[in-house]
Structures are given as structure tokens and as C-alpha cells.
């Protein structure tokens, strides 16, 4: 009997080892096209991927797009072309640890560092003295709030805001409900290394699918592109480090929520109300109570956590109405 279990173990060990080192999937043609259209710049020795498209003639307006967790700048692909028809320049980046950017490990990822990445990109593009419009989602909302804090405090190298549009970010710890896997990864130093290696496409697809509405689920190809972006440069292995942003939101709530409630920068919130991470009506009630200078668009009741992907037309209409209002 003992010999039988030894034989099973000898067979399983190499199989598990192979499984845990499955190479990342190849880029789809759509994702390859996105990658080919981008460039990289160096931030403290790390490569940061970004896209910078010139658009509308006769406009000097600039919009910068900040993506969410755990995806990438490709989240903006469905609204990219319409934005280039309205803005002179449309810019998006993959944060450090995301998408096509470097994913160092071990590394202490932080919202503060990601804000510095954005400032460095703006400087690299020669836009430090330009007024910029920021559109952010999820994780990007918190990065945007750190940038807003630095701007309002007149910190060296800060962005000059023309406007800020947020969308479905967990900016209030008291109304934010992370998924179970996120909680396990951010709080379990023992389990996290194992869980990041065991996370596979099926687990990822199920988790992402739960934060999309039932009628707005990604296609199989879109799920696969999200997974490919995550696996690029072994991004699954840094998820636990990046997820410390949830703890950072709680620790620095006064700084970031305070910036949001005190700023005079034009603000807007585009919100998918079926979001299980920032549920309706709890989230939007707190937002409207605390951020009284902001306007709000609540999209159709079946739109969830990724409004720019689930309802790109509704998202664009809300955003353009906001931009034209001031």
C-alpha cells in the first residue's frame, strides 16, 4: 500500500510542477494590435507600457485613462476611437504590475508609486504644464485621488487637473466588498504564494464574470484577452502584492476621501448599479452625501462593475455630457 502512494506521488509531483509553470498564452490578434500601437518609457528602471493617440483637430484637450484591477489599459478599447474624435490626445497606461508593463517581484506595490508613474508619464510626454482630464476606473480611482491630493496640495511634479471622472471604484472602505479570493490574497502571507500559482483561467473567468452583469458578460475572446494580459510577464504571481491597495485605502482614507470632498476640480461619477463590489444604493448614497460638488450618472440597472466595457455607449454619453457641462 505504501509503495502505491509513493508511485502516485512520483507521478503527481512532476505533473503539478508542469502545471504551475504553464507558459502564458499567446496574444490574440486584437491584443497584439493594442500592444503594437503602444510604447514604453522607463520609470525607476522599470518598463511602463502606454498608448498615446492623437485625435481631434482643432482641440487641445487631453484625456488620460486609468484602468482597474486586475486588468489593463485594454479595458478602454471599446471607447478609444470615440475619445480620439473628441480629444486632441488620448493617453492610457498599464500600471506597474499590470498588462504589458513590468511586473517586478518581490516588490512593494503602492497607490503612491502608481501615482508617481502617472506623473512621470505626463512629464515624459512633455505635458507637465498642460491641463488634463482624467477618467478612471476601480483601482484607477484611488490612483486618481492620490494625484488629486498632490495637485490640490501643489506638490512638485503634480498634474494640473481640468476634470476628473471616476467609475465604480472602491473609494470608500466602508462600502467596498472585495471578492473572496482578493481577501485571501491580500491577508494571507502563507496561502498567497500558493493561490497565485494555482489561479487558472477557469478561476479567473468565474471571478471576473461575477462582476459583470448577466446580460453584459464578456465574450470568450474578451475573457481570454483579460487573462492573457494578467499572465503576461507572470502577472498572476504579483496579485497578492498589488492587492495591498485595499489595505492602503483603509489606512489613507482621510487623505484620499478628503481630497475628493474638498477639491474644486469638476467631478463626475459614472456608476454601474449592479456592482457587487461597490453595491447600490449603499455606495452611491455615501458618494452623493460626501461629494456634493460632483455630478453623477447611474447607468441602466443591468450594468455592473465594468461600465466602459458593458455599456460603452452609455459611458461615453455620460462622459461627454459631463465634459460639455463646464
From TrEMBL:
Occurrences of domain AB hydrolase-1 (ranges): 62-312
Gene3D superfamilies listed in its UniProt record: alpha/beta hydrolase
SUPFAM superfamilies: alpha/beta-Hydrolases
Membrane topology summary: Multi-pass membrane protein
Location in the cell: Endoplasmic reticulum membrane
Primary localization class, coarse: endoplasmic reticulum
Membrane spanning stretches: 5-22
Annotated GO CC locations: endoplasmic reticulum membrane
A GO biological process held by the record: acylglycerol catabolic process
Family listed: Belongs to the AB hydrolase superfamily.
Name recorded for this polypeptide: Mesoderm specific transcript
Source organism (scientific name): Seriola lalandi dorsalis
